[in-house]
Amino acid sequence: MKFPMFKVHIDKESALRNISSVIDTGFFNEGVQVKQFSESLSRKLGIKNIVLTNSCTSALTMALKLSGVGCGDEVISTSMTCLATNTPILNLGGKIVWADIDPKTGNICPKDVMRKITNKTKAVMCVNWAGLPCDLRELMSICQKNKIKLIQDAAHSFGSLYKDTDVSNHAHFTCYSFQAIKHITCGDGGALICLEDKDLERARSLKWFGLDRESTKDEDGEWKGQRWEADVVEAGYKFNMNNISASIGLSQVDHIDSIIKNHRENALQYEKLFSDSDLISPLLYPDNSLPSFWVYTVLLDKNIDRDKVIIDLNNAGIGAGLVHIPNHNYTCFRDSQCDLPGVDYFHSHQISLPCGWWINKKDIEIIVATLIDLCKQQIILK
To answer: Are 173 and 199 in contact (CB under 8 A)?
Structure first.
């Protein structure tokens, strides 16, 4: 594929040097490198309450647990996302209540969220589609008024800003992904950001069976010795990040700003080139936000055969496609099935294009010209 949808950014020399350092110590578990990566991310995002995990799915599971979700409790969520957003709800015994999305944004609709709240609702799960922030102010206001938690799946949106600050400042819990094809990667990994200090303390215990391992380390992140006399008040999980994963993440810290800058510049180029098209519509996002554009998603005119366009683009060497499909039609979610016209429309007409650091303005001109030409050909033939 000449223009792939995803391409992993790795500073190979730095990554190998960091991994070699971990191997030399013989200590692969959670230690110095995890602490260093955590501190680097904390500075970069301008946040303090961060817990690194082995995946974003683990971070989401802990966020749900911290929100009080258990058997029979309801979580209002979006269907237009990765399975990893919603399977943790079922695995904790919760029930999913689908809220529709605004098809012009791909993001959950606050008005529909408000309509779906009951006395069983414990949390709202929102996803920043393609890195475009949701209406976080309205969602947070709804959750605070109803004394429920807002969980933000920010797997697509590392580095996205809302009201001039990182999106993680605008939800009770924010979960990031460092999986293989995200803005930055640890091979696999994630992070949980907690708005409140009390949730951070509990999360530190939950990530490792119920024991707070931070209390057994010195200021450098080294082990001070075992503390088996500590009581386990709440059974936790094995969700911690390890030093190998963290060392890969550390190799990318110095490149984060340039990676996201390239994504944003490419998105602006797309917006400019699509501005005169009446067959292709870029997604909308809040005026007071600055997305990180993991991919660039557009909606095709209703008269365009989207699936044929994807095949033709792929045949032309352009890695366009669907990064996720709606969850609500899967059998495992059959107990929550309902009509979601916004999701159905968005899914039928959306297509995502490569937007990362590996393509440039010239490449985007080719991608846009090819897509517009394919759409026009279909209209002419009809």
So the answer is: yes
How does DSSP classify residue 46?
A: T
Cα–Cα distance, 378 to 382 (Å, whole number): 6
Work out whether strand 190-194 and strand 165-166 pair parallel, antiparallel, or are unpaired: unpaired
Q: How far apart are CA 339 and CA 103, in angstroms?
A: 14
CA distances from 293 to 6, 39, 196, 249 (A): 12, 24, 28, 20
- How much is the pLDDT for 353? 98
> What single-letter amino acid sits at 371?
L
- Binning pLDDT at 50, 70 and 90, where does residue 178 land? very high
pLDDT at 158: 97
Average pLDDT, the chain: 95
N residues, the chain: 382
How far is Cα of residue 258 from the mean position of the Cα atoms in its chain?
Answer: 19
Q: Summarize pLDDT for 241-269 with one digit per residue, the tens.
A: 999 999 999 999 999 999 999 999 999 99
Distance CA 142, CA 238 (A): 33
The DSSP output letter for 318 is B
Cα gap 124→312, rounded to integer Å: 38
Distance CA 186, CA 247 (A): 8
In whole angstroms, what is the distance from residue 70 CA to residue 89 CA?
Answer: 8
What pLDDT, on the 0 to 100 scale, is given for residue 157? 98
Q: What is the mean pLDDT of residues 50-59?
A: 98
Domains of the chain (ranges; CATH) run: 12-254 (3.40.640.10), 256-381 (3.90.1150.10)
pTM metric for this prediction: 0.95
Q: What is the mean pLDDT of residues 149-173?
A: 97
User: What is the pLDDT at residue 232?
Assistant: 87
In sign, the C-alpha dihedral spanning 243, 247, 253, 255 is: negative
The residue written with tokens 């012009």 in the block is: 104
Distance of alpha carbon 352 from alpha carbon 357, whole angstroms: 16
* Alpha carbons 250 and 202: distance in angstroms, whole number: 26
Tracing tokens 């917006």 back to the chain, one arrives at 271
Give the tokens for residue 327: 């969850």
Alpha-carbon Rg for the chain, nearest whole angstrom, is 21
Q: Quickly tell me which residue has 């647990």 as its tokens.
A: 65
Residue from 186, 172, 169 nearest 69 by CA: 172
